[in-house]
């Protein structure tokens, strides 16, 4: 993708485009979450599973091997009984360990990004065999960021491992009195400290990686104004979307137009002489739909109803006059106003997501 193409993509991706990308198996994912969950899983094994199930397992195995010379294996049933007891003993330790690892693997999948099953990712792409495209990807911002992150992570984990091993080596140097029974607790304590340190180091890496991967993916999905127009035209042919749009139209026609104002996405005013209530539902409306409009007293009434029902009211005098004059009720707004209205709709949708941004020049958000 050229720089100019990327710069032209200034609009947030629609739900339809995001859905299509996911159908193709295109989504964001973070590998750092898997690394963190692996360390946490091992930490839980060292802190809980091994101390709880390890000693009984060792004592039972010791009893089995000590009594092995006295075991009679005269029939296949005798061998089956011994093997059953031995398998039950091993399972008592292995199953809790596998259960812990399974839980952390599941959490890792949830943190790593949306889980998708798509055959589209299995299809070969000739672009992957293009040396020029490969070099471009190698020196891209994403790969350079990934390289820097990996170097920093390996350096920090390596330093933590070195400090842990140095502690063990110092404890085992000649002259230090340490019984053989004390070696295992020392190694266990060191392992726990090392795993805890590694987990603490990885937490900020995971947070950054999830934010960065999702940010980059959403940036890649952005659309240009022409993309939005093309999508709006494409959705006209979808029978499901057309049926839902007709249902909304029938519902609006059954009520006075003032009663449809609470369903509006926003109201554009002039500020008191004109008011146009617009509805836009992604994936349903090809473009914003005028569901109510009025002048003077009717305009004030539309504005008051909108404010009472927490519908955004935007003062934009030239746009309000143009929409009132050129749009019929229960009809799409004219195409020449799509870009201007799209900016206001994007502002309102961002507000619902608690994202604050500036309105276009000449527009004002009415709050009371």
TrEMBL record:
Keyword Transmembrane helix part of the UniProt annotation? yes
The biological processes this protein is annotated with in GO are: protein secretion
| Disordered: annotated span | 1-25
**Transmembrane intervals:** 36-54, 86-117, 154-174, 194-212
Instruction: Respond yes or no to whether keyword Membrane is given for this record.
Output: yes
- Write out the entry's keywords from A to Z: Cell projection, Cilium, Flagellum, Membrane, Transmembrane, Transmembrane helix
Which stretches does UniProt call biased (Basic and acidic residues)?
1-18
Pfam entry (one): Bac_export_2
- List cellular component terms (GO): plasma membrane
Q: Which domain of life is it from?
A: Bacteria
Which family would the database say this protein is a member of?
Answer: Belongs to the type III secretion exporter family.
Name of the featured protein: Flagellar biosynthesis protein FlhB
The species this protein was found in? Falsigemmobacter intermedius
């Amino acid at each position: 993708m050229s720089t100019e193409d990327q710069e032209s993509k200034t609009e947030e991706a629609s739900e339809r485009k995001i859905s299509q990308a996911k159908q193709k198996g295109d989504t964001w994912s973070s590998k750092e979450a898997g690394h963190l969950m692996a360390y946490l899983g091992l930490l839980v094994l060292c802190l809980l599973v091994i101390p709880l199930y390890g000693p009984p397992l060792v004592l039972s195995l010791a009893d089995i091997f000590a009594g092995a010379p006295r075991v009679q294996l005269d029939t296949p049933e005798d061998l089956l009984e011994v093997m059953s007891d031995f398998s039950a003993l091993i399972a008592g330790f292995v199953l809790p360990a596998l259960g812990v690892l399974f839980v952390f693997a599941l959490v890792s999948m949830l943190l790593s990004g949306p889980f998708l099953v798509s055959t589209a990712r299995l299809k070969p792409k000739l672009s992957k065999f293009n040396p020029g495209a490969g070099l471009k990807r190698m020196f891209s911002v994403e790969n350079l960021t990934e390289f820097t992150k990996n170097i920093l992570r390996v350096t920090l984990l390596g330093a933590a491992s070195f400090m842990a091993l140095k502690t063990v080596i110092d404890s085992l140097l000649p002259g230090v009195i340490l019984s053989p029974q004390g070696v295992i607790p020392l190694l266990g304590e060191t392992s726990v400290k090392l795993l805890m340190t590694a987990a603490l180091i990885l937490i900020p890496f995971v947070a950054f990686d999830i934010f960065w991967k999702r940010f980059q993916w959403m940036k890649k999905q952005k659309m240009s104004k022409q993309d939005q127009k093309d999508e709006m035209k494409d959705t006209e042919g979808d029978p499901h979307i057309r049926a839902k749009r007709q249902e909304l139209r029938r519902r609006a026609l059954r009520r006075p137009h003032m009663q449809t104002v609470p369903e509006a996405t926003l109201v554009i005013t002039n500020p008191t002489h004109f008011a146009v209530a617009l509805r836009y539902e992604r994936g349903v409306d090809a473009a914003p739909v005028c569901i109510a409009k009025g002048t003077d007293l009717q305009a004030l009434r539309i504005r008051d109803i909108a404010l009472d029902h927490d519908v955004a009211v935007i003062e934009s005098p030239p746009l309000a006059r143009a929409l009132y004059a050129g749009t019929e009720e229960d009809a799409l707004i004219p195409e020449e106003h799509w870009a201007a209205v799209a900016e206001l709709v994007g502002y309102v949708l961002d507000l619902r997501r608690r994202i604050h941004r500036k309105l276009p020049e000449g527009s004002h958000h009415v709050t009371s």
